[in-house]
Amino acid sequence: MEGLQYMAKKVIVITGPTGVGKTTVAKYLEQQWHMARVITHTTRTPRAHETDGRDYYFETSTSFNRNHYLESVVYAGAQYGSSLEGLDCAWQKSEVVTIVLDTAGAITYAQELADKVIILYISVSDSNVLRQRLAKRGDHPEQQQHRLQSAEYLRDLALPPELVGRATLINNDNWHTTKKILQEFLILCGIMDLN
Q: 116: which DSSP letter?
């Protein structure tokens, strides 16, 4: 964890529309800067490459309701939520952790955890890129279409007014450039230094 100077517990909330690269950003911060990811819960079916307890806690509707959530939403017909226990578990691994949330979840985190929250809003210049990325990650065509027509997807295409002035905007058109911007962001926030 050389190069990181941790402050009091923080959570970097990564938000934006589906397919924009939020999970890629979270995995990069985990691998490159050893930030634990808060594992969230969902009732959706796992994709072929996903593992329970690593990508999500895959739940039934019954088991989903047994957890204690800071926030939860229904997105494209499936329940999603982040539990207080999951957040505490991540903070036991590192004092700066990441979580991927939709914009409604990001607003809740900002309201509930105040100065413990740093928000990144990830976007791309062309929304057609999002359709292409969804197709590449293996979602069934009907699921893709349902997701792209959902109110949640349309909501997440723009930074909500509640996060204006609070979120740092990062365009993820080019991954190489995004990594440089993330490093500058971490330095600016005082999470890492160049020493």
A: G
- Residue 54's closest CA among 18, 20, 21, 30? 30
What distances in angstroms separate CA 88 from CA 19, 37, 72, 141, 159, one per listed residue? 27, 11, 17, 36, 27
Domain-wise residue ranges, the chain? 10-188
d(CA 175, CA 180): 9
What is the C-alpha separation between 28 and 178, in angstroms, rounded? 10
Give the CATH number of domain 10-188.
3.40.50.300
Distance (Å, whole) CA 155 – CA 159:
8
Residue with tokens 């929304």: 127
Window from 51-65, 99-113, 116-130 with minimum mean pLDDT: 116-130
| H or E element at residue 101 | none
Calpha distance 132→1 (Å, rounded): 35
**Pairing between β-strand 41-42 and β-strand 78-83 as defined by DSSP bridges:** antiparallel
What is the dihedral angle through the alpha carbons of 92, 95, 98, 101, rounded to the nearest 10 degrees?
A: 80
Partners of 75 in beta bridges: 78
Q: Is there a contact between 14 and 122 (Cβ–Cβ < 8 Å)?
A: yes
Query: For residue 60, what is the enclosing H or E element?
Result: none
Q: What is the pLDDT of residues 115-154, one digit of tens each?
A: 999 999 999 887 777 666 666 666 666 776 666 667 777 7
